[in-house]
């Protein structure tokens, strides 16, 4: 297992997380009474609570009786919330107890930002501590600048594809690019988003405290040199840094991590990318579009581990095979030496299983995309008796931090990459919102299986829920049937109009009750298309209901429309009539 | 070609990219498709006409029009297993999809020639099918004796013709240490080498650190490098008389910054032909042709897809019909070879090369068919898909540089033909008619180079006169 972690921790953690979530799920009675579901649906009909569609309140209730108590609990909620929102008007006034703040968030990344915004909305006096720059990895060294580079690579790819252009009747003379211009675009975007983030928090009255934050003791935080503040609740949201396996010497010029690559200081002729997860794939898209040749080094036997096998197979045909990319699978890069003394970058490959030397590669640059490691050093965790696991802060399903004795640390939470549950920016944000819900008196458990993920290659890959093998395994152990429906982008008018018919959408579902277990999309704008499915999973919408929903024609969303319609749900699965419950 | 022993078999799509949608709670139902797998009985072409031994080769099927090779994803059946008609035997991955390949025969899978994970070109034997159990052994022997050269094994062959000093290496792994320098090839170079069946070990690397780059492989495969912008189209078959000096070895030393780009296969062929042409005594006759009528006709038929090339080829074809000697050739220096067909080859520049697709029976086909044919040929030429008969069956060549504004030029006679016509641009020219009136007419200069062993001056002049008449009264072209 350790080998998997060292390679693409982000994705494999997702997998472990899923199995963890599967535990409570397995206690769910197989035939969940759909009438009860119907009643939960009606609870959620208030527009306010619909806002948190990513958050499934009652998670996987284990018996009808708990369900009922939850229900009564929920009935009380509106009144609590009313009080809280009344308190919101007094944000900034000293809190009732002698704490400096209601909530302190350590780390102003996307997770911390999401939590802060929601905390203010809930009337909490909130501070956020940032030791570096606001925005964290996502905004400064991750999702955001990489999207800028991918926007460029997508256009380059299109303009360079003479055949594609010709099929539109367009004539474009040879496309070229200015490296510095591309790099500036990425940098400008990051700056812009960072300012937006900062301003949004300032505008709401979140105190932004600058300095490195650490936990001094229960409800006590130090930041900067010697500023000590107290808070009723503390959220750790310190995120992660690129993970560099040992034996690899990063010089920031020829052996680089995503942090360096996003600055696009050079476009090497030939770059080896260690790791073929999201990060590696996206960079392969950027580099090949800008003219580099790419060699993937993957420790597992398959490229793109973690994706649904069928999707990764098709993706490989489109994203790898026709491009100037080759790969070595089942090997570790045991030693990487940067280019120096007139020698290229040297990469020693060893067999992932036997550890025997297999090959030596000589390339112009190497990008280490082996995943990300939690950034939790120097957080003062020892002060609250917390022991990290491979750097990750252990938490329960409510993001409450667990100490070395397996007990919950009161008033301390950890969200985002630092807890390793699901290393995605929007997951961190959702976890943060979930925590704020809890500390404001509303129990909440986030359903991680409803959190979508996307890889912004051309075309994009997106997914939510289980992969087909995971679903089949679950079906086997729990005794339900698993079916698969597929649709092709080739049949979609809009995709064909764009000359982008390559792609499939695939849904894994239970034919007995119409539950959506997972959706995987590979094709044009897949990352935008996945949300219909992730929302359906989050809200518990069944196929027999969602298939009646209407999609504008002609749009790419019809790919999912067709997918839902292609599913065969067994006749006796009851259909609740959605239309009655939607307030018009 | 043993047509009697080729059979069809259906294949089912296991990964139906082409299907619009389907839902399955079991495995997807096989979707019948037109794709076919050819089984051929090898005995029928090795031994003459007898199909005694019922051992059939299972060939790599062409699963799509663009597929050149396929990868064996998995063998569903193992060696020695009994096969029933319609059962899937092997899963093949093409550039587009995975397909289950079914058998149309009962029998036994006697031998697997190409293993799982290996690739084989379309048409190569990937396995042997025996009709009876008794024949399995025979088939196995056959498989063993068969050089598996057709199969491209993923690992590089151990003994390549590497120019490195032949030091016996105990194992390939040892070679990776700082011993003799191993070959380093970029991903694109490797892909190209595979595609063009170039042994990467035999390519000399010119890239940084001596690595083999895509252009090295392209040079070795004799293809125009794609990275360099296509040079301005070279004058088709009309390079200003290359002199014999060019071939002598005493070439002057290279200037410091000069680079040497080896000929591609096409360029080598051009070079060879040009040298060969020097052995033919040629002469040239020019002729001005009034094109006002032709231009008017062109404007009229252009919307119907007729090209100037088709018009000129048709005119030349019709003129050749009246002057068969210009359509003849001199093969041995002792006789005329009169051609029964008038096949007009037209020189085309395609990036970095020159090829002459042939419009067969240019005198007989109508303009529209000719134009259609021409478009098809040019498309094929661009994609390097011309069949030999489509570029080497010409009896007369047409070379037009008029579109570049060239007013006249001189073409080199390609070997094996009697004459070549060089067409210049049609330009408004002041002319005086026999009554002394000046007018402006569009004139185009054509210049024909011919083999004087068979075509004499008067022949050529007469031919040109006929050609000019046809062009100046082009109505006959549309008949």
TrEMBL record, chain A:
SUPFAM superfamilies: FAD/NAD(P)-binding domain, FAD/NAD-linked reductases, dimerisation (C-terminal) domain
Cofactor(s) in the UniProt record: FAD
Subcellular location field: Plastid, Chloroplast stroma
Ranges of residues in domain FAD/NAD(P)-binding: 101-432
Domain annotation Pyridine nucleotide-disulphide oxidoreductase dimerisation: ranges: 451-562
Domain of life: Eukaryota
InterPro entries assigned to the protein according to its UniProt record, in alphabetical order: Class-I_Pyr_Nuc-Dis_Oxidored, FAD/NAD-bd_sf, FAD/NAD-binding_dom, FAD/NAD-linked_Rdtase_dimer_sf, Lipoamide_DH, Pyr_nucl-diS_OxRdtase_dimer, Pyr_OxRdtase_I_AS
Main location: plastid
Uppermost EC category: oxidoreductase
Family indicated by similarity: Belongs to the class-I pyridine nucleotide-disulfide oxidoreductase family.
Listed name of the protein: Dihydrolipoyl dehydrogenase
TrEMBL record, chain B:
Positions of region (Disordered): 139-197, 223-253
Taxonomic superkingdom: Eukaryota
Cross-referenced PROSITE patterns: BIOTINYL_LIPOYL (PS50968), LIPOYL (PS00189), PSBD (PS51826)
The keyword Transit peptide belongs to this UniProt entry's keyword annotation: yes
Segments forming domain Peripheral subunit-binding (PSBD): 184-221
One family name in Pfam for this protein: 2-oxoacid_dh
GO molecular function terms noted in the UniProt entry: dihydrolipoyllysine-residue acetyltransferase activity
Biased amino acid composition, Low complexity: 142-153, 161-177, 240-252
Compositionally biased spans, kind Pro residues: 227-239
UniProtKB keywords: Acyltransferase, Lipoyl, Transferase, Transit peptide
InterPro entries the UniProt entry points to: 2-oxoA_DH_lipoyl-BS, 2-oxoacid_DH_actylTfrase, Biotin_lipoyl, CAT-like_dom_sf, E2/Pdx1, E3-bd_dom_sf, PSBD, Single_hybrid_motif
Enzyme class: transferase
Family: Belongs to the 2-oxoacid dehydrogenase family.
Protein name according to UniProt: Dihydrolipoamide acetyltransferase component of pyruvate dehydrogenase complex
